[in-house]
Design a protein that fits this description.
- The chain has eleven helices and six strands.
- The protein is of the alpha/beta class and 268 residues long.
- It has a single domain, classed as Rossmann fold, CATH 3.40.50.
- The longest helix has 22 residues, at 171-192.
- Residues 116-242 form the Sulfotransferase domain.
């Protein structure tokens, strides 16, 4: 891993939070990967939020042969600012960017041909929905729902949403439909991108058997693997899927499990 030395021209940006990013960058439209072509052969780690993408992107960024560009308190926000052109990064090397934040702008992936490899982390909906409901603030979940989940409302709930806004939809419903909307993007990515451009990884498989799964990921991204990388793969959040109430589990099972099972058919 190579650490960037010297200034990165971050002083003029002024964006320190995702709320500021939403106000100042997203309104310009889907130009969030505006600078991606400056970073050929990058690794892009994505999937539904709360699926383990941060862990995997950090493992790869800290690997030999990669460049560590982190400069702030949130490395995904650092990546978003660099790729949108808000922060200038002029450094050699190969980079790993976490791109879960793209949300409704995921079709930007189709606009670039820079030899990037996309790693999609798929996680069971019970763990993800629990985390979205109980570990996220209202604004963050509402933003994800607006971008990825609202389009999956039935007619009755859609009318309520248009009239009253996000407060009219339960947190459970927002989390479930956000999961479905985000995971459904994977189907289009696999259909439209080259076969060797996207690898789908099941989170539980990775954390339960990193010695087997992680080397396959490194072969896919064409990066030398070291056994010590497994030391950074942890299982501490695997129990989240058991924390939902029976009612919540039944709803997740009904709404999200079919999407998850379909996505599992794309596992590499």
């Amino acid at each position: 891993m190579t650490k960037i030395s010297g200034p990165m021209h971050t002083e003029k940006c002024g964006i320190k939070t995702w709320r500021q990013f939403a106000r100042r960058v997203r309104p310009r439209g889907c130009r969030l990967l505006n600078r991606l072509d400056r970073f050929p052969k990058s690794v892009l780690v994505t999937g539904c939020q709360r699926s383990g993408t941060t862990m995997l992107s950090r493992v790869i960024t800290l690997s030999d042969g990669m460049t560590n560009y982190w400069f702030g308190k949130d490395d995904e926000l650092d990546a978003a600012l660099i790729l949108a052109g808000e922060v200038e990064l002029d450094a050699p090397g190969r980079f790993c960017f976490q791109t879960t934040y793209l949300n409704e702008c995921y079709r930007e992936y189709f606009e670039h041909d820079c030899g990037c490899r996309i790693l999609w982390v798929l996680r069971n909906p019970f763990s993800v929905v629990y985390s979205l409901m109980y570990n996220w603030r209202r604004w963050t979940l509402d933003e994800l729902f607006k971008a990825c989940g609202a389009g999956f409302l039935d007619d009755r709930l859609a009318r309520r949403y248009r009239r009253f806004g996000p407060i009219a939809i339960s947190r459970l419903m927002k989390a479930c439909l956000s999961y479905n909307g985000k995971v459904s993007q994977l189907f289009e990515l696999k259909e439209r991108l080259d076969k060797d451009a996207v690898m789908v990884i099941e989170y539980d498989d990775l954390v339960n058997d990193p010695q087997r799964r992680l080397p396959k990921i490194y072969r896919f991204i064409d990066l030398d693997y070291q056994d010590r990388y497994c030391d950074h793969i942890h299982r501490k959040s695997t129990g989240k899927k058991n924390r939902l109430s029976n009612r919540e589990r039944n709803i997740v099972d009904q709404l999200c499990l079919p999407v998850y099972e379909k996505a599992k058919g794309l596992l590499d």
